Amino acid sequence: MQELDTVGQGSVRVTRKSDKLVIVEKDLATEQMVLAMGPQHPSTHGVLKLECLTDGEVITEAVPCLGYLHRCFEKCCENVDYPAIVPYTDRLDYLSAMNSEFAYAMAVEKLLDIEIPRRVEFIRVLVSELNRIASHLVAIGTYGIDLGAFTPFLFCFRDREIILGLLEWASGARMLYNYIWIGGLAYDVPADFLQRVREFVNYFRPKALELNNLLTSNEIFLKRTHGIGIMPPEVAINYGWSGPMLRGSGVKWDLRRNDPYSIYPELDFKVAVPDGKNSVIGDCLSRHLVRAIEMEESLKIIEQCIDKMPSSEGFNSRSAIPKRIRPKAGEVYSRAENPRGELGFYIESDGKSTKPVRCKARSSCFVNLSAMKDLSKGQLIPDLVAIIGSIDIVLGEVDR
Amino acid sequence: MEEGKPVSQSVQQSAAAYSMIQQQFGSAVSPLDANETMPFFEVVETARWVEIAHFMRDNAKLKFNYLACLTGVDYPAEEKVGIICNFESLALLDHKLAVKLKCQRHGGSLPSISCLWHTANWHEREVFDLFGITFAGHPEMRRILCPDDWEGSPLLKDYKVQQSYRGIKVPY
Asked: What is the pLDDT of residues B120-130, one digit of tens each?
């Protein structure tokens, strides 16, 4: 040991030889290293770049660099008419385009102050919840891949394909639908659509259970996520978190329940929060579990929508669409519960133009990601991958 | 507000919250615009913004713990730019209120509230990036969506895109 004391400040590597520590290397470099993850990195789920300051394996600071997918959505909106913005909203969060359209359509309808036919509302909720399942399937599948589990990904994409097929049948497009219009829908659903959705629900329910067991009974998956990236509820609210991220921290907050819109007040579903039995509340595993439970709740909502849907007799999906969309002067901030959290639209109308003066999308991923700096401090590099995956970002929505 | 329509409960709650702020700060805030879609008031004395925001967050009867959205807006007719903050008391008192602030259009500055709500950090950087408002007291006031060496503020109404960026022709 005496030998060690004489070394002084420099860092050394030692080895044990017959109860004695012997220095193998002296004066090792200990300065911090900058490690750039992305923008072309598979585990960042798109073109996100993280500049990590690392001390060995430990991250001292990770700074997200955004903007690689910035298309200035808001400037585009100021130059087109209200209905023409709907396809742009598809391209925000391209994994849940229906939900984005729904949020935007609701915001403009609030400005216009118009009534929507009940069947339109039911179809909107139905397709949004289908899209929510598809979106969560991507989130869960790719999260498995991030942590080394490949099989769940294949399961997820197999089942997601059925949903995309259904939505394509209804709207004509696989991912970017342009289906929910201001005041109505592009088309009514096809004749056998509800029957086929019900078949899907019956098919998917056991599959969702199987998928969940596959991950949550996997020792490696649990080890990688349990107790990692813990976010206390107060800090989560202060960071403006929403959706599964906020619920993962134990805050029972769901806009479908707490600030209800459309027909959600009539539907019976529970707000998913972790119970803390299998996970530490606020960790990566909790956020994963919330998504898994939410898929089952969405199935429940879909079934209720099918049961309660008003008949298509004499129904015209475009009957409530105004001939000319020119809201009176005013502004609105309206939001909806998307798979990734609160998607809000701030829209300002001057009352004269058919184009909005200002249309801002408050993106949930952008806000959720802003906590990255605090979440990653003191974590190991592999845990950083687990944390990014649990945030479930879509860069189309972050960068807009 | 339209005549004859009853004021909804959420607007009443917003009005109650506003009256507390108005009592505390008097003429520093404008009267409430109690419209149905987004009730808001404006902070006239922008220098007191952090003080007002702090009161809104910590007062036991207000508890605006959640900053849902922070937006920049351009008002070319008034030669001003501004921000709009949508506050909410999430899971506590369940009321909402929007606040507006304005400053001069070019080289304008407003106090930063990122010390009170972490989420304001990135929102304010976005407003700085797209509208050119600087936020005094912000820990890292730099662009977030556009490249650091981009010129101009894209969301201003009279924005003209630069001719070239690092030798690449920009307008197409």
From this structure: 999 999 999 99
CB-based contact A397:A69 (threshold 8 Å): no
Tokens (6 digits) for A50 = 């993280």
pTM for the whole structure: 0.87
In chain B, how long is the greatest CA-to-CA distance?
A: 61
Domains of chain A and CATH, by start = 1-30 (no CATH), 70-378+391-399 (1.10.645.10)
Phi, then psi, of A3 in degrees rounded to 5: -60, -40
Q: How far apart are CA A127 and CA A139, in angstroms?
A: 18
Residues of A near B (Cβ–Cβ under 8 Å) read 66-67, 70, 72, 74-75, 110-111, 234-235, 237-240, 251-253, 258, 330-335, 342, 344, 346, 348, 358, 360, 362, 366-367, 370-371, 374, 399-400
Give per-residue pLDDT as tens, B11-39: 888 888 888 888 888 888 888 887 888 88
What phi and psi values does residue A366 have, to the nearest 5 degrees? -55, -45
Q: What ipTM describes this predicted complex? A: 0.88
Q: Domain locations in chain B?
A: 9-169
Which residue among A239, A258, A348 sits closest to B119, beta carbon to beta carbon?
A239
Q: For B9-169, which CATH class?
A: alpha beta
Neighbours of B60 (CB within 10 A): 7
As a whole number of angstroms, the distance between CA B122 and CA B144 comes to: 8
Q: Are A247 and A189 in contact (CB under 8 A)?
A: no
